[in-house]
Amino acid sequence: MLTPAGRGAVATIRLRGSSEQIERAGFAPAANLPLSEQPIRRLWFGFWGETPSEEVVLGRLGKRDWELHCHGGYAAVARILNSLRERGWDTSGWKEFFAQDEPFPVVEHREALALAATWKTTETLLRHTPQRFVEALNELRTELDSTGWHDERSRSWVERWKQMLAWRSFGLHLTIPFRVILAGQPNVGKSSLLNRLAGFERAIVHDRPGTTRDIVRTLCAFEGWPFELSDTAGIRTHAEPLESLGIEKSLAEIAGADLVLFLVDVSRPPAPAEEDCLQNCPRFLRIGHKADLPVHSDRVLGDGTILVSSLNETGLEELIAAMIVLLVPEIPPVDSLIPISIRQVEWLERLQSACEQNDPDSIRRCCEHLLNPDTVGEQHFFP
Ligand code: GDP
What we know:
By secondary structure, the chain is of the alpha/beta class. The protein is built from 13 helices and eleven strands. Strands 7-8-6-9-10-11 form a six-stranded mixed beta sheet, with helices on both faces. Strands 1-5-4-3-2 form a five-stranded antiparallel beta sheet. It is flat. Bound molecules: guanosine-5'-diphosphate. Guanosine-5'-diphosphate binds next to helix 9.
């Protein structure tokens, strides 16, 4: 089955078999023409199974390759797949199916395209075809088998894989949103800012500290890049037990975030301990929030603080621009290789170290695995 279950009006099933096998499996063309006598690229309207049968369109792609289009609901697809299995056909997932003929990076690229949530990420994936990566791996394998393989060659490959891995964050975030956490004291306006950024009322805004006890997540896109915004429980020390749990979760979230937006209230005195939680986070932006109110003292406005008012909707564009600069600082040139799945990143790291050690067996194994993993099945290469 090539289409996601239950998601579209029409489902597409790819079949591989002779025209007689297709007819025996259950297909009957509306116009009584034997399939075997029809040319490649012909489409037929017809029926599948006993009355009441499914209405289907069958397309011939090759001598033994066919595409069957049926109603997209679960029942019609299950009925057709079951009738095939009953007649002894093997069925497989779409990744396994494509992996029979295509190098695996091409299959992963298809999967990434299906997961890409914005035009920008889709366009970027289409621009960076997986073919170049496949060619590079094949080139390395050929070099490895040639007589001229030596340390220097191995080192030049280290450089190539290093360059590719430099785009890991960019590549992985074509399908996985950047995780941005809003943190800061209760009542500093985290929920309000999340709502402003996301453009709709997603989090509860309340003027009593401690309203956001759990983590609220919102998916959105800025300049075409996917983001997941999370609003955390306010960080403070004397909290009720239920809220403390939320705070613990917040600290764990902060450690795993791509970016933390740390809010301080410009109208209140600075609290020296409040930024302690930033110690573990790789990247953060300091937001001077409630910028519509009089500034309490210059000390609240540290270096690089971005002034934002969720109430008046000021400073939001500047904030979004700063987020993009930090998270997507550079766009890879069209001809660069970029890893797009966690699997690729993991195996490229192994390949790079195998090249560093100039270990031909290990290099070969990594190339093989990147091109053609042992098990394709239901593994997930994307979270
Ligand atoms: P949180 O606890 O950090 O999530 O804070 P909330 O978003 O619930 O906001 C706490 C209070 O601050 C609410 O009364 C909001 O109306 C108010 N508030 C939020 N943003 C602003 C702002 O930009 N300016 C002003 N003056 N008040 C704000």
